[in-house]
Known about the structure:
The protein is α+β, with helices and mostly antiparallel strands. Helix content is 41%, strand content 15%. The chain has helices at 3-16, 46-57, 60-69, and strands at residues 23-29, 36-41. Strands 1-2 form a two-stranded antiparallel sheet. The protein starts with a helix and ends in a 19-residue tail after the last helix.
Amino acid sequence: MQTGECLKLAKLFKEVMADSTELVNILSDLTGQYNRVIIVSQYKDMADFEGSWKRMEADPEKMKKMGEKMAGYTDLYLTGSREIFRVW
Length: 88
């Protein structure tokens, strides 16, 4: 991912997730050979995490708007992953 795409992707995620109560931060790592965008969100527990997906899917209009905003976002990155951490 080029630096420009990294920043575009970070800004896109920040815009799309602006009304998310779980969003903590959007981070961009521009060090080394990798340019990464990291979304940090916080949930009470795994049930809350899973429930957030169900709540999102239950609102077809919101899903449609998000799909329109996110159109083409996969062109902005090479790979992706998900990590779930417990904060102590």
